[in-house]
Amino acid sequence: MHRTDIDSPSPIKIACLGWGSLVWNPGVLRCLGTWRTDGPELPLEFARIAQDGRLGLVLVAGAKPVPALWTLLDYTKPKIAQDALDGREGCVLSATGLWPGPALLHSPGSEAIAAWAVTAGVDAVVWTALTPKFNNVDGLAPESADAAIKYLKQLDAATQARAKQYVERAPAQVRTPFRLAFERELGWVSETT
C-alpha cells in the first residue's frame, strides 16, 4: 500500500530519478540531500537532440540498462512533485513519469522503476520521460554510436562545446555504449571517472 495523499499520518517519500543535467543542476526542484547512486537500471542512451544542439540522455526502448541516480524530494504530493519536474525540464506532463500512476505512451523502464520503488521503500517516483529525437524526428534515436558521433562532429564549435560538457558532466555510472564510443572516438571522458 502506498501513501499518496496529504492526509497520511506520516510524510510520504517521493523520489526523483536522474541521469543527466538534472543531477548537477536541479534548478527549481526541491531535493532533499544528495543524489544516490543505487537507482534502478534503466535503458538510457544519448539519443535526443536538445534545443541547444547537444545530444541528451533519454530512455530508449531496447537500450542497454545502466544504473540511474535518485534523490528524495521535498513535496507533500506526488502530483506536485511531477509538476515541479515539468517546470524544471520545461516540458509537458506527458514527458514526465509518475509512479504509481497511469502508464505513459513512452515508458521504457517503467517496470524497472516500479520494482525498484517497492524495494527502495519510496511511496512515489517521478522521472523525465522525453522521447528520443534525432534528425528532427520525435521518437527516432540514432541507429548507432557512429551516427551519434557523426552528428556531434558536424556541430559548430560553441554547440560542440556544450555537447562535450553535457557528456563529461553526466554521472560516471551512466556508461552507455554511446558514451564509451564518445570516450574512444572523441576523448570525451567523465569528469568524475
What is shown here, in short?
This protein has 193 residues and is an alpha+beta fold. It has six helices and ten strands, in the order βαβββββαβαβββααα.
Describe this structure in words.
By secondary structure, the protein is of the alpha+beta class. The chain has a domain at 14-140. It has 6 helices and 10 strands. The chain has helices spanning 21-24, 78-89, 110-120, 145-153, 157-169, 177-186, and strands spanning 14-18, 31-36, 41-49, 55-59, 65-67, 69-73, 96-99, 124-128, 133-134, 137-138. It has a 5-stranded mixed sheet, sandwiched between helices. Strands 4-3-5 form a 3-stranded antiparallel sheet. The longest helix has 13 residues, at 157-169. Mean pLDDT is 90; it is low at 1-9.
Strand content: 15-25%
Overall radius of gyration? 17 Å
Tell me the number of helical segments per DSSP (H or I, 4 or more residues long).
6
**Biggest sheet features:** 5 strands, mixed
Q: What is the mean predicted local confidence, pLDDT?
A: 90
- The spatial strand order of the largest sheet comes to 2-6-1-8-7
Which sequence of SSEs, written as H and E, runs from N to C?
EHEEEEEHEHEEEHHH
Beginning-to-end CA distance, first to last residue:
39 Å
> Could you tell me the number of beta strands?
10
Structural class: alpha+beta
Q: Low-confidence segments, ≥5 residues, pLDDT <50?
A: 1-9
Portion of residues within helices: 25-40%
Question: What would you call the shape?
Answer: globular
